[in-house]
Specification:
- The protein is globular, with a radius of gyration of 16 Å.
- It is built from eight helices and four strands; from the N terminus they run E-H-E-H-E-E-H-H-H-H-H-H.
- The chain is an alpha+beta fold and 196 residues long.
- It has a four-stranded mixed β-sheet.
- The protein has two domains: 79 residues, Glutaredoxin (3-Layer(aba) Sandwich); 105 residues, Up-down Bundle (Glutathione S-transferase Yfyf (Class Pi), Chain A, domain 2), CATH 1.20.1050.10.
- Keywords: Transferase.
- GO terms for molecular function: transferase activity.
- This is Glutathione S-transferase.
Length: 196
């Protein structure tokens, strides 16, 4: 059985959601970043981590893609043009949404106060809004990559949810309705209602 290390209020939720979509059982070890528990699995204290047998994997997106590949679901097959398009979308989301949210978090509560630059946050919010508009314009179907849910859908939805919690401007109605449809999935609800 898999073991997911991290809080549901972190990127660990992405991994838990992936496992729920895949129908795979897992143990959830709720803990915060840099906690003693987190450091047992990742010396840096970053979360999430995934324990699969003797292997400990880190980085939420790497874990999600690993699980998708291992179980042959929520992903295009490796070595296909469809997978290259999917990977391009995943990397774009990491660069243009996730990284912006992480930068805002670092300047809000992660960095020691003397290293925070609060003045950067309005520009980060503007950049996120620009990226959200691009994503909305690219959305042409029930899922980002077409007719089937895949890794980028989980990643994008998590980023949109994170942006709401971080006080960013709301995405447009089209993208907002799509994100709501993703949050309405039973697998998302199952992961989001876990304690921690």
């Amino acid at each position: 059985m898999y073991k997911v290390i991290g809080s549901t209020k972190s990127r660990a939720l992405r991994v838990m959601w992936m496992l729920e979509e895949l129908g795979q059982p897992y143990e959830h070890v709720a803990c915060g970043p840099r906690s003693d528990e987190a450091k047992k699995y990742n010396p840096s204290g970053k979360i999430p981590a995934l324990v699969d047998g003797d292997e400990i994997l880190t980085d939420s997106v790497a874990i999600m893609q690993y699980l998708a590949d291992k179980h042959g679901k929520l992903t295009a097959p490796a070595g296909t043009p469809a997978r290259a398009h999917q990977d391009a979308m995943t990397l774009w989301l990491i660069d243009e949404m996730d990284a912006i949210l992480w930068a805002a978090a670092k300047h809000s509560f992660v960095f020691p106060e003397e290293h925070r630059v609060p003045e950067i946050k309005p520009s980060l919010k503007a950049e996120f809004a620009r990226s959200a508009k691009i994503l909305s314009d690219r959305l042409d179907g029930p899922f980002l990559m077409g007719d089937e849910i895949s890794v980028p859908d989980l990643l994008a939805t998590h980023c949109i949810n994170w942006s709401i919690g971080a006080g960013f401007d709301r995405v447009d109605d089209k993208l907002g309705a799509w994100a709501k449809s993703m949050r309405d999935r039973p697998a998302f609800k199952a992961a989001a209602t876990k304690e921690g």
